[in-house]
Amino acid sequence: MVKLKFYYDFLSQPSRTLYIFMKKTEIPFEPKPLNLRQGQHLTEEIESLNPFKKVPFIEDKGTVLIESVAILRYLCRTYNVADHWYPLDIKKQALVDQYLEWQHNNTRAHCTEYFRHKALWPLKTGQAANVEKVEKLEKKMIENLNLLENIWLKDKPFLCGDEITISDLVAACEVEQPRIAGFDPLVDRPKLTKWITRVQSNFSPFYKEAHHIVVQTADEYQYYASELSKKNS
């Protein structure tokens, strides 16, 4: 049987999401890890499959899909997974879709931009981050994290109701990303803290496995920041 091919890098939040989900739901796949920081996604072979040369993407039964939310929906409808992940009930499904559409310009955008400007670009270029830019991005990210705390999780255990869905995994992987840059998204957010603990527990041990790179890269960034501070003192 030909397995689904999964191209990914754990530094990518959507890559972690798909890996964890497929492991949890026992969807068989052939792992195709790519190191983004080494440019392994920029080859002609990858471009022939995905002209955008980004991860994650999958190749399944002759079909290539390159957007993580579309891939999640495809997996839920193509493979035998529990209904609660992406319900067939149109109203419940709409609640999941509502968060998935909202998060692109909110949770994902703000957590990603903060991580990129404060940690990724400095690690990649060796240049210090633009402090003013980072402060503005941090403010927007905090506003967004507070929306998760005060609106999305106001009166329910998961983002879309009483049961966990793919939206919770998508959100959790995004919320973890600022940790790399030394920012703890859970401080003074008790609902967010309890929620992410539920998500982590539900996806154990795969959640921790996929997020080892967050800890590893955070340590790398802290060392870089410490050395830069010594250099400038």
TrEMBL record:
GO cellular component, one term: cytoplasm
GST N-terminal domain mapped to chain residues: 2-83
Family: Belongs to the GST superfamily. Theta family.
Main location: cytoplasm
GO molecular function: glutathione transferase activity
Species of the source: Aphis craccivora (Cowpea aphid)
Localization, UniProt: Cytoplasm
GST C-terminal domain sequence ranges: 89-225
Family matches, as PANTHER family: GH16740P-RELATED, PTHR43917
Keyword entries, A-Z: Cytoplasm, Transferase
Alphabetical list of Pfam families matching this protein: GST_C, GST_N
GO biological process, one term: glutathione metabolic process
Catalytic reaction annotation: RX + glutathione = an S-substituted glutathione + a halide anion + H(+)
Assigned EC number: 2.5.1.18
The protein, known as: glutathione transferase
